[in-house]
Specification:
The chain has about 60 residues and is mainly α. It has one domain: Orthogonal Bundle (Arc Repressor Mutant, subunit A), CATH 1.10.10. The chain is globular. The mean pLDDT is about 95. Helix content is about 70%, strand content about 0%. It starts with 6 loop residues before the first helix and ends with a helix. The longest helix has 15 residues. It has 4 helices and no strands.
């Protein structure tokens, strides 16, 4: 399967995988918290995941983060 995530979704998911919360990701990437949540939600949907941590697992297994 090809990379299903946009570069920003991958970046946000990578930071979430490292244990960063939404506020910390937002500060790090100079985004609003709502935008970070939208990227995370989009990644969950694109990967067919149940939640954020499931999306992290799927993305790691796929080699996308």
């Amino acid at each position: 399967m090809t990379q299903p995530l946009a570069p920003r979704e991958s970046e946000v998911l990578r930071l979430a995988a490292a244990g960063e919360d939404v506020a910390a990701i937002a500060r790090h990437l100079f985004l609003s918290r709502g935008t970070v949540r939208n990227y995370l939600s989009s990644a969950v949907v694109k990967l067919g995941a149940r939640n954020r941590m499931d999306a992290v697992r799927i993305a790691r297994e796929g080699g996308w983060i």
